[in-house]
Amino acid sequence: MKRMCALIALSLIVSSHAVASEKGDVKEGNLLYNTADYSAAAKSYQKALSDKPDSAIALFNIGAVRYREGSYDKAIQSFNKAIASGNESLIPKSDYNIGNSHYRLGSKITSTEKSEIAKVKDIYETALKYYKRAMDLDPSDRDAKFNYEFVSKKLSELRETYNFKKEDEKKDQKQDQK
Questions:
Q1: Looking at residue 113, what DSSP letter applies?
Q2: What is the CA radius of gyration of the chain?
Q3: Which residue pairs, CB below 8 angstroms and at least 24 apart, start in 42-49?
Q4: How many angstroms separate the CA atoms of 81 and 152, rounded?
Q5: Across residues 28-45, what is the average pLDDT?
Q6: CA 45 – CA 75 distance, rounded (Å)
Q7: Could you give the CA distance from residue 22 to residue 101 in angstroms, rounded to a whole number?
Q8: For 68, which of 18, 33, 35, 95 is 20 to 30 Å away at the CA?
Q9: In the prediction, which pLDDT does 84 show?
């Protein structure tokens, strides 16, 4: 019985140390992030994840680092992992940032070829879905509302400039017939 109590006490000490270490690594990462040392911040967040692999805040913060570095696909992956970790308070923030990442991916495409413009349109539509979800989950989020309106205008301009309206209407009619 004494041995079992000692093992339980030891396991509590070990697990609380991991949480303390994870929090310390996140704090260190935040300090580095705030000084724009994104590479070092990412290392601190990764270290936090080695202590607690499902740390929503570390996953979210890695997404923020990847976004700042311009690695929008990796940012999206990290924000999605933060959502999957189950921390409900980070879901609207992650959705907002996924929307931003999609918008940035679309705005990086500079080709005026119809197929590339179609990709931009699809990417902007995806961004809008994430902004909408962020607004649904947090109606007070003015930034999500502003970005939704901004990207909506960009998408409208794109549709007008490249005549996507007729194609979009055909797609909608096909979906309605199903």
A1: S
A2: 21
A3: 42/66, 48/21, 48/22, 48/23
A4: 27
A5: 96
A6: 14
A7: 26
A8: 18
A9: 96
Q: Which two tokens stand for residue 35?
A: 């000084």
pLDDT at 19 over 50: no
Kindly state the DSSP code that residue 112 receives in the 8-state scheme: -
d(CA 24, CA 50) in angstroms, rounded, equals 13
Check the CA dihedral 43-46-52-55 and report its sign.
positive
Q: H-type helices in 52-113, by residue range? A: 56-69, 72-84, 91-108
Residues ≥6 apart with Cβ < 8 Å to 161: none
φ/ψ of residue 54, rounded to 5? -105, 25
Alpha carbon distance 63, 81 (integer Å): 9
Asked whether 75 and 66 are in contact (CB, 8 A), the reply is yes
For 68-106, what is each residue's pLDDT tens digit? 999 999 999 999 999 999 899 999 999 999 999 999 999
The residues, ordered by sequence, that sit 6+ positions from 93 with a Cβ below 8 Å of its Cβ are 60, 134
Distance CA 75, CA 97 (A): 8
